């Protein structure tokens, strides 16, 4: 699992006691180096929230209440010695600087003059904590370019392939129409919504009591049977959930569906691999292109994205080469349009391999395992002569 930030390169930051002007200066100084929370916490909220979210960096305003800032620094240093504390002030004052250093603050910055110092502190905090994530499992996010591309089927069948020798959990992040449980003919007694209500006590034991187990040994964190109203799940709550899953499993296969919300975008940010599923048709490829533009804007690197073409046919009007040249990504895998086997698997709540292990779909999905386990990076293909990379001119003309 990658560190939290745009494209996985930023730190998880809390901000305390900073006014609106200071928040603006922080955003301007850090830019794409870190994802900042929308609001500053009060001094009273800081210790509780730091215990809950375990940030890499905590920026504390020294102008609002200097004494509270100093007391908070001492308390956090005692309880969380690896946390990077940064004091933010509107002016340089030697007495305040000495007090900040004595109470555990690593840096004392005045913006905009000390922007480079702040960026360096955030960067070093990230890499100081990298070793903490080395033993964590990998997050694989599966998303569809549009509805009906088959990302749920790919997510669960690929997860089941990994279960032979790994601990794997499939996580359903479609809060309105999640189908992972029904695709596997499971009737979960607990759901992801229940787990989100228990984040304050979430650990491996609580997580184990919330998953359903398929006969393939795949663990499933499902959506509730009834429609869920939790469309506005906060990104930091999803982050905590994914961190706990990555601590307990070697692979976490996350079905993001087609929704673009705080939950799914947070998942894309921290995912080690993003599998974007497209069909070989114009609407699907066009929507894939639009999603790639969004990923570029939020800092998701192209080398983490694996382009999967589902329902591929040899005589399709759009060839794999067409899709590659217009999306600017190499096709990592294609799954043959084995409609009979796939529809039978969905309707019977069975894995594709259990319906027909010799089918083309079962073969193609099994071959995708190396996309997860080998971790090789895919390069963008060269643009064909006369075409601009990433431009969908042939779709619109």
Name its key features.
397 residues; alpha/beta; Rossmann fold; 2 domains; 8-stranded mixed β-sheet; 4-stranded parallel β-sheet; 18 helices; elongated
Overview of the molecule:
The protein has 397 residues and is α/β, with parallel strands linked by helices. β3, α4 and β4 form a beta-alpha-beta unit. The chain folds into two domains: 6-132, 3-Layer(aba) Sandwich (Rossmann fold); 135-396, 3-Layer(aba) Sandwich (Rossmann fold), CATH 3.40.50. It is elongated. The longest helix has 17 residues, at 282-298. The protein has an eight-stranded mixed β-sheet, with helices on both faces. Strands 1-2-3-4 form a four-stranded parallel β-sheet, with helices on both faces. It contains 18 helices and twelve strands. α2 (43-53) runs parallel beside α3 and α3 (66-79) packs parallel to α4. Helices cover 41% and strands 16% of the residues.
* CATH architectural designation of the largest domain: 3-Layer(aba) Sandwich
> How are strands sequenced across the largest beta sheet?
7-8-6-9-5-10-11-12
| The CATH homologous superfamily of the largest domain | P-loop containing nucleotide triphosphate hydrolases
Helix percent band: 40-55%
Low-confidence sequence ranges: 5-11, 376-392
Which sheet architecture does the biggest sheet show? Answer: 8 strands, mixed
Overall spatial form: elongated
Let me know the average pLDDT: 86
How far apart, in Å, are the first and last alpha carbons? 41 Å
Class per helix and strand makeup: alpha/beta
- Counting structural domains, the number is 2
Q: What is the fold-level CATH name, i.e. the topology of the largest domain?
A: Rossmann fold
């Amino acid at each position: 699992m990658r560190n939290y930030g745009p494209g996985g390169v930023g730190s998880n930051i809390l901000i305390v006691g900073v006014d609106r002007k200071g928040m603006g200066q922080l955003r301007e100084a850090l830019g794409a180096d870190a994802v900042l929370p929308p609001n500053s916490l009060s001094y009273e909220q800081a210790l509780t929230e730091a215990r809950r979210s375990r940030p890499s960096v905590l920026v504390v305003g020294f102008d609002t209440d200097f004494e509270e800032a100093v007391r908070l620094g001492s308390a956090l240093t005692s309880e969380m010695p690896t946390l990077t504390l940064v004091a933010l002030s509107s002016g340089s004052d030697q007495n305040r600087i000495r007090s900040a250093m004595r109470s555990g603050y690593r840096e004392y910055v005045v913006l905009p003059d000390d922007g480079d110092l702040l960026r360096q502190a955030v960067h070093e905090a990230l890499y100081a904590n990298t070793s903490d994530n080395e033993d964590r499992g990998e997050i694989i996010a599966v998303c569809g370019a549009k509805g009906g591309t088959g990302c749920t089927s790919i997510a669960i069948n690929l997860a089941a392939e990994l279960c032979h020798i790994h601990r794997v959990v499939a996580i359903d992040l479609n809060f309105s129409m999640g189908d992972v449980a029904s695709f596997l003919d499971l009737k979960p007694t607990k759901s992801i919504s229940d787990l989100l209500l228990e984040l304050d006590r979430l650990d491996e034991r609580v997580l184990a009591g919330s998953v359903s187990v398929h006969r393939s040994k795949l663990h499933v964190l499902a959506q509730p049977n009834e429609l869920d109203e939790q469309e506005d799940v906060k990104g930091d709550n999803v982050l905590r959930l994914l961190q706990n899953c990555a601590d307990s499993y070697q692979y976490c296969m996350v079905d993001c569906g087609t929704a673009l919300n705080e939950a799914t975008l947070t998942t894309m940010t921290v995912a080690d691999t993003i599998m974007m599923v497209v069909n070989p048709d114009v609407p699907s490829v066009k929507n894939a292109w639009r999603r790639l533009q969004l990923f570029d804007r939020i800092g998701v690197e192209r080398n983490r994205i694996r382009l999967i073409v589902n329902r591929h046919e040899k005589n399709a009007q759009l060839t794999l080469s067409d899709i590659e040249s217009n999306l600017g990504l190499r096709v990592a895998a294609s799954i043959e349009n084995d409609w009979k086997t796939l529809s039978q698997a969905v309707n019977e709540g069975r894995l594709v391999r259990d319906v027909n292990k010799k089918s083309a779909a079962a073969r193609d999905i099994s071959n995708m395992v190396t996309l997860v386990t080998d971790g090789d990076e895919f390069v963008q293909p060269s643009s064909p002569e006369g075409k601009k990379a990433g431009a969908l001119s042939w779709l619109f003309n």
